[in-house]
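Known limitations

Files may contain more than one protein. Parsers should not assume a single record per file. Below, a two-record file is shown to illustrate correct handling: read the sequence, read the token line, then continue until end of file.
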Amino acid sequence: MPISRKATASLLITTCLLAGCSSANDDAGDSGAAPTGDYTIWDPYPQFDDSSDWVKLLAQCGTDAGVTVKRTGYDTTDLTNKALLAAQQGNSPDVLIVDNPVVSTLADAGVLTTTDEFKADTAAVSPNLLAAGQIGGKTYGIPIGANTLALYYNNDVLDKAGVDPAAIKDWTGLTAALQKVKQSGKKGITFSAIGTEEGSFQFLPWFWGSGANLTQLDSPQGVAALTLWTDWLKKGLAPNSVLNNTQTTSWQEFATGDFAFSENGTWQLANAKKTGFEYGIIPIPSQAGGVAPAPTGGEFVTAPIQDDTARYAVTEKLVNCLTNADNAFTTDTTLSYIAATEAVQQKQVTENPELTVWVDAVKAAKGRTSDDLGTKYPKISQPLWTGFQAALSGSASPQDALTTAQTTAAAATK
């Protein structure tokens, strides 16, 4: 799912804002007998009802495992809070599907088992995607797929400006293209720099693409990334509206047909086909050239800790069913995700060559909680978005803004 709909609030959870939750799981029966009874699955897809392919898949996975699946779909914020409360009360669901940055929060709170404990096979999963669920050398789930960011472009706007998008390989080339677009009478690039996790999500490709690291926000590389953004605004290559843009409102600007580029995600593919103009997609370039690491969105299939460890045998079957190649292909197509394994990625590209650029972007991507940041990430992200907001609004220089951000983040993550 796009970060705008699901990840923003969950990343800010540092305490348990507890609310009521569903009843406890039914017992699985005698651990020595064939599995029976109800197994619960909670997911962050409330938009899917019982008639959807997703819910039918959950039911079929239960049937194949010899049990009945009881599924509940929650908004991401509610799901995280209810998972924390359920663990406290000893009635966690058997399978929990959560936004990838939440995995470290739940693991740190002692909610989740490791993939070793419930015997999940992660061998085929792309290491950069799996890393979002790894903390302290342990893995706490399997990604169901991933989305990330790239640059959509308006082919008509670029043609009139004499810009070849395929020739844009680095920041210098992109900025030169934006200048040509402005000279032709059109607008350059729109993105989301709102003061929320959504803004950090969009800044990270530029930040990481400079070679910067989240443990040192005010490095020369990090300052270069923020200077790129601030210079675009000063030169009129990006609109001041980016300060308040969500990814949705940024897309709406692009859909007017006035902009050359929009930084946005896989979830806009269907909307791109509705714009009425010819569009294309290129990866976000790094400063020195090549594909910049963009952050991953998407969920992990996890297994909460159960008092009755005999339940893990069925949990393993359910998780394997949800993540096997055939089912992953169907689910990732439904969610507009790129698969977590190379074999399924190849199948996606064969079926839809337009996804090639997204597969390349996902291969270069990384989780926000990767590099063993875990629960430190939200404490870094908030100072980061505060910093780029200050620089873009003109209240601080990029250097001063990120120096303040680094001081705040360092104190919060001691």
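...continuing to the second record:
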Amino acid sequence: MTKGPSMPSITRSERRTSDLTGFQRSFLLVLVSMGSSIIYAPAYLKNVFYDPLMKAIGTDNAGLGKLLGAYALTATICYLPSGIVADKIRVRTLSWVGFGLTAVLTYVYALLPSFNTLMFVFVGMGITTILIWWGIRYKLVRLVSDESSYPRNIGISYGIYGAAGLVVGFINLWIIKLFADSIEGGVRALLIFLGTFILALAILSFLFIPKFEGEIDKDKSSFSPVELIEALKSPVVWISAACMFCVYFYYTGVTYTTPYLSDVMGAALGVVSFISIVRTYGITLLSGPAFGFLAKTVGSPSRVILYGSVVAAGGLLVFTVLPTKAFMVYVAAVIIVLLGFIANGVFGVVSSQLTEGKVPLTIFGTATGILSVVGFLPDTFSSTWFGAMIDDAKRGGDKLGTSAYKMIFIILAVSAILAAAFAILLLWYVRRQPSRAEDGPDRAPNPAETEVEELETAAVASSPFSESEK
């Protein structure tokens, strides 16, 4: 009797990609893509459920910012070594351990413990989601793909990321509404749901991710000081990192439209949460592919970053003059979604500046690590800074915090303008560099370079919620 296809067995020896059936590859692609969306949800819960979370844990705006700041600082420290860990330990192990430990921390979070305990929880999630899990997302996609299907699969992966986040986001909204009479009960139930979902992903990872042949090169060091020095000496790396810093600053800062809608414009919780979910997840399904296609069409990610950032700056400044009457809520909602679309799309192509600046493939991984460390730095201070601004304004007599929100939007608009300036700087730097001999017409195309370029222009970089992709 002929047996049907079965999932990879962990009891067998190492598996080649060619050993996996189409169904097995698709299953693993969905698993890691869904996981890249859900594993960061507990840490970044404030992006969608700002006010309910603040009330449930009994803190103020600055306190909420400190928790995310603790997570972000830990993540920043872990970005570079996460690549080394991913090269030294099997994907299967890192996946189920990262998911499993994050699930445990989410259950502790659901107890709504003291603020100090929550600080340890957020630091712990920085380790489990970044040091342990961060490095495997792209690696597992690569392991289940051949060279020609990798760019396509990474694009599909981001689509799954957005779809999973959208569905789970609306489930979370339903849970919050179900416990409308008890904010604490709703947040606790929401976190238990997320913890259970992440735990299920850990179990699936343990059971079905195989040991891949060749995924660990025991004869080659995954870290080279020479490559690090070369990457640090590259102007392209630093210009790209500065640009990403500014883009990520306003990309994440757009989330402050969530408390602005409720605090200043008086929008209902359901309306605010719905808009936040669409802004955070729904637009990912469209903005990433759209901006990736646009960058490839014009032949310059920096040009897309330039124009997109200028438009984003204009949209942010609109909020400083927009009437705060109730009837303007829906106008504000449209602007927020458009802002999210632009910011998400620009962030999705910003790492492509490394390719535009012709960073050599030999230091590309190290350059990406530097990009992550510098680019995600705003998470370490922006939430604490902005939260304190809102609290100070309210304590100073501005009950709604209107003046603080306007200043926040101005700061974000300046960041967008700086991003545009760095994009111009990179365009100028690339234009003044003489063409390399190996890039002449007689040089055969490098498949690896082509693959990297296709990958970057097609993908949406995730903040670690966004993936952190984070």
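Parsers that stop after the first record will miss the second one. For reference, the second record is described as follows. DSSP finds 20 helices and no strands in the chain.
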